[in-house]
Amino acid sequence: MGERKKVISTAKIQSDFVEGRLTTLCVPEDGVQTGPFGSLLHHEDYVSIGTPIITVEHLGENRIQHQDLPRVSDEDRNRLSKYQLHQGDIVFSRVGSVDRRALVRKEEEGWLFSGRCLRVRPDNSKIDSTYLSYFFGLQSFKEHIRAIAVGATMPSLNTQILSDVTILYPKNLDTQRAIATILGALDDKIELNRRMNETLEAMAQALFKSWFVDAVQDGLPEGWRSDRLDNIATYLNGLALQKFPPDRNDSLPVIKIAQIRTGDTAGSDRASAHLDPAYVVEDGDILFSWSGSLEVVIWCGGRGALNQHLFKVTSTNYPKWFYYLWTKYHLPTFRAIAADKATTMGHIQRGHLSQAEVLIPNSDAMKTMNAQMAPIIERIIVNNVESRTLAAIRDALLPKLLSGEVPVNEAIRETAARG
After folding, report:
1. Which label site among 15, 84, 103, 133 has the fewest CB atoms less than 10 Å from its CB?
2. Residues 40-63: pLDDT tens digits?
3. Residues 6+ positions from 402 with CB-CB distance below 8 Å
4. Where are the alpha helices (DSSP H) in 171-274?
5. Could you tell me the pTM of the whole model?
6. In terms of Cα–Cα distance, which of 275, 278, 219 is closest to 246?
7. Separation between Cα atoms, residue 285 and residue 177, nearest integer Å
8. Contact 388/302 with Cβ under 8 angstroms?
9. Which domains does the chain have, with CATH numbers?
């Protein structure tokens, strides 16, 4: 019982739930397996067209991210057939962020996983793989797996450590599947929003290119003019928020470069809520990290405090899409400038904003463009905020469902009521 208390410390355990070691719930042979080590697969083996390999970087929130996947030839795929994935497998990060995991779906059948990963292959006659993947997503389980990982500077797992963890699950497979269906419906909507936003972003980029790149190759239309990036918007640098410690009962999460990457403030530092409102970030604000990893994002991770090395970009004269897309247009140049800096953390300076040219259309053209572009940007924001709400519902339901504290039928009704 001791280990279960570590994983679900406050759960109300019901009689139809049992617990068992992970190894007893996996297929008998190689139920938990390490990926191919360097002697079997080298970076120079990668090809442009072939079978994808899942690395740690491709493990999202229980989903495999398909962007920038390395690939190997058919010959290497056959040579490494032992490391091919099946639908229902679960891939773990073996090193670093050892609490990251992703469920393998039908479209990833036959892909490979790298040596920095572990693969779990559940025995579906004993436990539903989707249910198990959600159990691995419990915050208490993540904390537990980080605590039992070996190594201080670079935590790591091995097959024995992962095989020995205790899993809590309903004895009835139908109950497991029902829980997985409830949580999966929320995740499916989040994924749908993500894909919709990818399409909307691509539409916005295509419109921008047609207006400001393609259409002006033979010169500016009548009434258009050229200006500089820092003249169309205000680039407000954040604060050194360690100088604004949190109040006991009133604080804000600190938004740093790490939060820009993840899109949320989970686990972030806290700062005083009594800041100049200009330094408070709200959903829909444009943030630009000008140091380290240069990114421009539409922030939808909730209210927070603007840390140094980030610009909050605003304008009283131009619409949000205009200064967002112009900043993003110049991002490759800014990244090249930062990469040339002879420092450990490349950056740009305000002078580079002054050197970045923008084209300003006449008022009639701006109105026409705004009528098309503003709804796209607003839809992206609405989708992202909705996804954050759905994720919060999922994360609140997760420990209650997986411990039996909330009956499955009750959760179905609640989820249906929320649409």
Report:
1. 15
2. 877 778 899 999 999 999 998 899
3. 8, 11, 131, 134, 135, 138, 168, 169, 179
4. 173-209, 229-232, 257-262
5. 0.86
6. 275
7. 39
8. yes
9. 2-170 (3.90.220.20), 225-360 (3.90.220.20)
